[in-house]
Amino acid sequence: MSSEANEKLILALPKGRILKEAAPVFARAGIEPEAAFADPDARQLRFTTNHPDLDIIRVRSFDVATFVAFGAAHLGIAGADVLMEFDYPEIYAPIDLGIGKCRLAVAEPVEMAGSDDPRRWSHVRIATKYPEVTRKHFAARGVQAECVKLSGAMELAPSLGLSHRIVDLVDSGRTLKDNGLVEIEHIADITSRFIVNRAALKTRPERVGHWIDRFREVAQGAARAA
Amino acid sequence: MSSNDNDHRGLLPAGLADLLPPDAAREARAIDLAIERFAAFGYERVKPPLVEFEESLLGGPGAALSQQTFRLMDPVSQRMMGVRPDMTVQVARIAVTRLKHEPRPLRLSYGGNVIRVRGSALKPERQFAQVGTELIGVDSAEADAEAVLLAVDTLRAIGVSDLSVDLNLPTLVAAVAGGVNQPEEAMSRLRRALDRKDEGGIAKAGADRKAADLFAGLLRAAGPADKGLAQLAKLELPEAAAAEAARLAEVVKLVAAAEEGLPLTIDPVEYRGLEYQTGVSFSVFALKGREELARGGRYSAGYPEDGVSESATGFTVYMDAVLAASAAPPERPRLYVGLGTPWADCAPWQSKGYAVVRAVVAAPDPRAEAKRLRCSHALIDGDAVPL
């Protein structure tokens, strides 16, 4: 009666940092991707799993949100940083997986931090991958942020005069330190979320709901263990 | 093909597009099919103007779309006018003014284009066609169910398959919040978390434990209607919220009884896009589509701020989404007829379903000419010869 039975669900995963931490989550959720998935040199972009009705795609972390928002992927794992930046209403973020922990912060050169008084700012120039989050964060405290959008290597911006300050993800703080920067303001704590497309959840409540339940169990199990 | 110096004139403002053959005809046909289904259930068509005074367009339920409305000044009356961003408000205005003496419930239908200031990332269109109905002047579960059933019936008539309906209670969260008395800041964080189905966000919103559990319970009730209603029944809802939940259950029962096998889900915390709704609301999805094809629900028709309003329900079908989710009907065969074919000879072919393309200049080779004009057939020696 329905064409739903033979249709595959697509799960979008980010390349890089989160991918490694996601592997044990997948194992506990009972998802085994095909062998090529573990090979970082593989050119393949789409992978089958032990579930005939579930495929995985591997895309850039910012693109996970876009694929899921537009319904090109039904499920995904994305950092809260990416979800905050895009704020797509079509994405439901039902589960905090507790992996990929880090924070989004404002940083500036060490030598500036001593004399800088953030209370006096009216306008700041910021190099960042997150112009939306940055603008909103500063607007909320009455500061206009002029954002220079970069795709990586933000830490270079202050030393080369592109901008004095940056907004970026901070994990150990090591990269900041190596580049003579210091964290001066905390914006948000970040973890990775299991996300689903809104229309996919409405039209396939059982199948999508099944995966939400599985990932919820895994997340709760991990939280108890920790 | 060389590029013409005039090509740049084809550029349209963002979110606006030309509909070309065969899409323009497809849309018009789908609108006709919809209006016909509405008429078959006694809904009579009205046609409000494209532009009207701001205070009538943006009063009552129209206030929710104020930010999305193009405005212009009427040089004649020197008053501000708005270009309609939605037609429901206009139909409601007609119902409470010019048709206020008509018996209730009043059944009206409409079809036309609306225009909005901004599209969204997912739906960049700023102009799109809406067709829909309004059932004005009664507040009953039967009326709520009629809107859902008619929307489903209409979408099927247009040729969309694998439909499912999501039923919502956009005022439930406010009703629950009214009963649990939480600080405003915690409520706005809760609202945001509920919009994103973010259970972690509910826990972190800063509401007390009991309220947070209640909202998490509402969130978990989203899903297949039977399971969701059972979950909803287990929650200890404040009185006003419990009454709304009971109404939702009644509507689900009526729709399920009329449409066996239609997948029904409920989502008691859905709110976005339902800003002016005051009761049971719904969205219709198709498995193939990535957005809702129709939305509707209960609202206050008229101008509550002036003390003139009636309970109403209705729905709007979004034609762009519908056309993306439905299969294109087969195109009409096109028959080329040579120069000098009498006008009267066209009719018999037309009644057989052909579009008759008459030669208006002489062509030495009718087959070649027919092909050049994208015809599927040519009239040769009195026969429609397929090419």
Which helices and strands appear, and what pairs or packs with what?
The complex is a heterodimer of chains A (226) and B (387).
Chain A: E1 9-14, H1 17-29, E2 46-48, E3 54-59, H2 61-69, E4 75-79, H3 80-86, E5 91-96, E6 102-109, H4 110-113, E7 123-128, H5 131-140, E8 144-149, H6 156-159, E9 165-170, H7 174-178, E10 181-190, E11 192-197, H8 198-203, H9 205-225
Parallel strand pairs in A: 1-3, 1-4, 7-8, 7-9
Antiparallel strand pairs in A: 2-3, 4-11, 5-11, 6-9, 6-10
Chain B: H1 23-40, E1 44-45, E2 51-53, H2 54-57, E3 71-73, E4 80-83, H3 88-96, E5 106-115, E6 127-136, H4 141-158, E7 163-168, H5 172-180, H6 184-195, H7 199-203, H8 209-220, E8 223-224, H9 225-234, H10 239-258, E9 264-267, E10 277-286, E11 294-303, E12 308-318, H11 319-325, E13 334-337, H12 346-351, E14 355-358, H13 366-372, E15 377-380, E16 383-386
Parallel strand pairs in B: 1-5, 7-9, 13-14, 13-15
Antiparallel strand pairs in B: 2-4, 3-4, 5-6, 6-12, 7-10, 8-9, 10-11, 11-12, 15-16
Helix pairs in contact in B: 1-4, 4-10, 5-8, 5-10
Pathway (chain B): Amino-acid biosynthesis; L-histidine biosynthesis; L-histidine from 5-phospho-alpha-D-ribose 1-diphosphate: step 1/9
Family (chain B): Belongs to the class-II aminoacyl-tRNA synthetase family. HisZ subfamily.
GO molecular function (chain B): glycosyltransferase activity
Describe the structure.
The complex is a heterodimer of chains A (226) and B (387). By secondary structure, chain A is α/β, with parallel strands linked by helices. Chain A has helices spanning 17-29, 61-69, 80-86, 110-113, 131-140, 156-159, 174-178, 198-203, 205-225, and strands at residues 9-14, 46-48, 54-59, 75-79, 91-96, 102-109, 123-128, 144-149, 165-170, 181-190, 192-197. Chain B has 387 residues and is an alpha+beta fold. Chain B folds into three domains: 12-167 and 270-331, Bira Bifunctional Protein, Domain 2 (BirA Bifunctional Protein, domain 2); 171-261, no CATH class; 334-386. Chain B has helices at residues 23-40, 54-57, 88-96, 141-158, 172-180, 184-195, 199-203, 209-220, 225-234, 239-258, 319-325, 346-351, 366-372; strands at 44-45, 51-53, 71-73, 80-83, 106-115, 127-136, 163-168, 223-224, 264-267, 277-286, 294-303, 308-318, 334-337, 355-358, 377-380, 383-386. In chain B, the strands form three sheets. Chain B has a nine-stranded mixed β-sheet with strand order 1-5-6-12-11-10-7-9-8. In chain B, strands 14-13-15-16 form a four-stranded mixed β-sheet. Chain B is elongated, with a radius of gyration of 26 Å. The mean pLDDT of chain B is 92. Chain A binds chain B through residues 1-4, 7, 69-71, 86, 88-96, 193, 197, 199, 201-206, 209, and chain B through 120-122, 161-162, 164, 166, 195-200, 222-224, 261, 263, 265, 267, 272, 283, 285-292. Chain B: GO terms for molecular function: glycosyltransferase activity. Chain B: It is found in: Cytoplasm. Chain B: It comes from Reyranella aquatilis. Chain B: Keywords: Amino-acid biosynthesis, Cytoplasm, Glycosyltransferase, Histidine biosynthesis, Transferase. Chain B: Its main location: cytoplasm.
